[in-house]
Q: What sequence folds into this?
């Protein structure tokens, strides 16, 4: 392939050279009409006006040369370089005059054809003294050096090609600029979390060098959760096995970290808001955007949310019902309120605000389970996450929105199963680690509705997770929602697709009169708009969530697209 490209490149340069030569020849002929002899001699042409290479050679071997020249000059006649004067005759003192002379229309007809006393004078005969130089060679030596000019342009073309090839190789060898990827830790380096240990077992672990960092009662499990710091010079794997050996029935695992499923880096380039920004995503899921019959609007229902902090004083919540509970250990640096405020606004934003929510009459119980580390990493650990899930179970919520993702964990799996058994619907983000990433949890656990994100053209969000666990798709690119302090902006990520499915699940519960998670998941899958390959697939799941007959969103004046 490279050889073909090289030959093509050279051919292009040769063609360009021919064009230049043609233009030069035209200019020469034009100027020669005004001053032919001096100008032609200056540029290298013969002083004879005949441009053809005919006439016999002036060699003493006239017999051979006459025949050879006749054949050669016949070729020159085909080229039509000059006017012919008879059937191959040469009109000069040294002209060839035999049957071997050029017989084409371009045969020589000038006195300069053969300019030597030994010119051929018969049918192939030579009559002269010694060996004179042939007029053909003399003519060519004094003629236009087209071959030389062509070689010059060909050489330049090769040089340019080689130079461009060297530049390409240099660019390939040059190290590419890459954005440094910060590897965030997946778990605490020296902590184990256990659920179900008895007091005497915990004391025995303390005697072995384990330190109690936190402990609390988990009501839904009717068990004690404890966060332990492992002894020095002990690996996490060895510590986990040691704690499990104390009580085989206890659930023990590492203190894994979980993060929100937002994509802050993409928010700056998110889609601009439409003329009525809050309507775009709602239309995609067939949620009416004009006032209508609100008799079946969702009221007196509790929606759970585990997320970062929420700015409850934001204008979008001024007429809503929002309760925020802090589950983070005292002394930890509080989380930012950007992510939680945005997700909450999509769910329960006030009707008359710039970011009206899908269920403005519902009550939102939000648990702040996140904190910031010294390195500005915002996360939740498994101990805090278990506590948050227990708090919401005690608050009797019907649906829990989990716009977060992380690794698999035995305690998280256990709590997920307990909440599903309690008939609490869990809706979780698929995560933004990319299409080749491993499944994120809790969305990949059985019984959890896993949500991916699409844009307004129903194309999959490029960084969304994929796999057999994906259930539904929802708007998650350029979603118009509340900013952390005041105003509104667009957000991108599977985190912001999740509340659309959460709202749909709440409505289905009301409409079907059931809170069974499997029944709700089945109904949502059945009504979904199929996207991608026919049927369920690993990219869109069952398709884009669709809701019909739900509460209508208010019609508002076109807000400014800027917060």
A:
């Amino acid at each position: 392939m490279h050889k073909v490209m090289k030959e093509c490149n050279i051919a292009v340069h040769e063609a360009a050279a021919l064009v230049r030569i043609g233009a030069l020849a035209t200019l020469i002929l034009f100027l020669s009409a005004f001053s032919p002899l001096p100008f032609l001699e200056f540029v290298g042409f013969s002083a004879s006006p005949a441009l053809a290479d005919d006439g016999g050679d002036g060699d003493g071997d006239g017999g051979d040369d006459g025949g050879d020249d006749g054949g050669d000059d016949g070729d020159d006649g085909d080229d039509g370089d000059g006017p012919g004067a008879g059937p191959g005759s040469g009109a000069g003192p040294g002209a060839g005059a035999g049957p071997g002379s050029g017989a084409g229309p371009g045969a020589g007809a000038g006195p300069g054809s053969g300019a030597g006393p030994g010119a051929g004078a018969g049918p192939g005969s030579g009559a002269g003294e010694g060996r004179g130089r042939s007029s053909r060679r003399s003519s060519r030596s004094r003629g236009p050096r087209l071959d030389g000019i062509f070689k010059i342009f060909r050489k330049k073309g090769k040089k340019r090609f080689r130079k461009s090839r060297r530049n390409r190789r240099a660019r390939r060898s040059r190290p590419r600029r890459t954005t440094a990827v910060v590897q965030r830790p997946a778990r605490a380096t020296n902590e184990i979390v256990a659920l179900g240990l008895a007091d005497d077992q915990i004391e025995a672990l303390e005697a072995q060098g384990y330190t109690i960092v936190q402990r609390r009662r988990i009501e839904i499990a009717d068990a004690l959760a404890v966060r332990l710091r492992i002894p020095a010079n002990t690996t996490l794997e060895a510590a986990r096995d040691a704690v499990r050996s104390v009580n085989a029935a206890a659930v023990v695992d590492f203190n894994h970290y979980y993060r929100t499923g937002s994509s802050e880096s993409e928010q700056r380039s998110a889609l601009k808001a439409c003329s009525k920004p809050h309507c775009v995503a709602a239309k995609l899921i067939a949620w009416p955007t004009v006032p209508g019959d609100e008799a079946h609007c969702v009221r007196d229902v509790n929606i759970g949310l585990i997320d970062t902090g929420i700015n409850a004083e934001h204008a979008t919540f001024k007429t809503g019902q929002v309760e925020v509970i802090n589950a983070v250990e005292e002394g930890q640096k509080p989380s930012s309120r950007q992510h939680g405020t945005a997700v909450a606004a999509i769910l329960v934003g006030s009707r008359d605000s710039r970011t009206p929510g899908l269920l403005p009459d519902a009550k939102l119980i939000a648990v702040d389970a996140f904190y910031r580390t010294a390195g500005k990493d915002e996360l939740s650990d498994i101990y805090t996450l278990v506590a948050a899930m227990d708090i919401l179970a005690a608050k009797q919520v019907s649906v829990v929105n989990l716009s977060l993702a992380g690794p698999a964990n035995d305690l998280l799996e256990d709590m997920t199963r307990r909440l599903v058994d309690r008939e609490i619907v869990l809706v979780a983000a698929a995560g933004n680690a990319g299409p080749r990433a491993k499944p994120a949890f809790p969305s990949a656990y059985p019984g959890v509705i896993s949500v991916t994100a699409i844009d307004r053209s129903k194309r999959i969000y490029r960084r969304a997770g994929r796999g057999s666990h994906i259930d539904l798709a929802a708007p998650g690119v350029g979603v118009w929602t509340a900013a952390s302090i005041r105003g509104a902006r667009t957000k991108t990520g599977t985190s912001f697709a999740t509340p659309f499915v959460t709202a749909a699940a709440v409505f289905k519960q009301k409409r079907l009169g059931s809170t069974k998670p499997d029944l709700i998941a089945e109904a949502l899958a059945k009504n979904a708009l199929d996207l991608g390959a026919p049927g369920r697939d690993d990219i869109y799941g069952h398709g884009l969530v669709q809701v019909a007959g739900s509460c209508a969103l208010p019609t508002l004046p076109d807000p400014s697209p800027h917060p």
Observations:
- The first helix runs from residue 2 to 32.
- The chain is about 35% helix and 15% strand.
- The radius of gyration is 44 Å.
